[in-house]
Request: fold
Amino acid sequence: MNNQLADLTERVKARLDAIKDPISGKGLFTSGRVKGLEARADGKISFTIEAPADVAELYVSVRERAEKEARATDGATSVTAVLTAEAAALAKAAGGVGGVKQIIAVASAKGGVGKSTVAVNLACAFASLGMKTGLLDLDVYGPSAPTLLGTGAKKPRMRDDKILEPLEAHGLKTMSIGYLVDPASPMIWRGAMATSAVRQMIDEVAWGDLDVLLLDLPPGTGDVQVTLVQRVPLAGAVIVSTPQEMALADVRRGLAMFEKTHAPVLGVVENMAYFETPDGKRTHIFGEGGARRVAAEVGAPFLGEIPIDVALRESCDAGAPLVATKPTHPVSKRFREIAAAARANVARMSKPAPAIRVK
Ligand code: ADP
Reply:
């Protein structure tokens, strides 16, 4: 390295040290969080900030300031500052999940599109494909897994070592944030509780060995949802939407949310796609193929469509998921196809990427 470059590097280090590391209180460079600092002859600066995975969002603004400081350095022409969650912390996070091999989030940009119905039946479909499956209901605004799975009145048992035993129903292990958060508490408080309790719901629950854990996220794409997905190492996400034109904006918002976390979108499921009368005539109540079109437009895989179906609605109300209780029903078959497609996309798309990688 010639002297000029060495000088430039030193000036960048000094600039970065003007920022306080939120955890150690030391200068950002001195704290050791900055890795791979490189200065090129043309003045291009690049470095990575490694943050502990569980508090990575603290470092989002630190990264912005670091980029600004580096750009203001005499001799710098451009700056690439990347935020990653620390590999060690991620490994710990993954280890903390015990034997959970993969975590898949089920999301929707708004409520009432059948996200929970899809999450529960998709979980049963994974189980029917021979995968050990768990379902964690994080929909703090309206936890519905206890109703959909018929576990409503039961409560998870706390072991002596303060680890919660998940409930078992229809071949699934299941937990709901609804057990931890008072439904009478204000919305904003419940959102905060969900984001702070999510690690506990994963680390302090005896999930045992699972091939896949599905997360039923609260509907929406706001701060609560983003924080939730950033706290968990996701193998991918499934977005549920109805076919309405409004779906266009919804699916886009969902995709943007997962882009922030670099979790691959495994695909879009179109729910309430049509209604079929007994004589086989289909009516597209909410319009035709909207979610499929938007998925194609934005380059996300389309996983399949679920019709409006009376048996599906009845099975929800009865707490007896259709896929588990009527496996030969055509809608159950649809769910198994969607599960198989999602599984194939995990294998194809997921890479051991950091939970957060913001450029
Ligand atoms: P979300 O989780 O998006 O708020 P839910 O899964 O709770 O939505 O579904 C809302 C209601 O719609 C439930 O009563 C459910 O039984 C019903 N429902 C969802 N999808 C379908 C469908 N494809 N056919 C019939 N009823 C459905």
Observations:
- The CA atoms of residues 57 and 227 lie 8 Å apart.
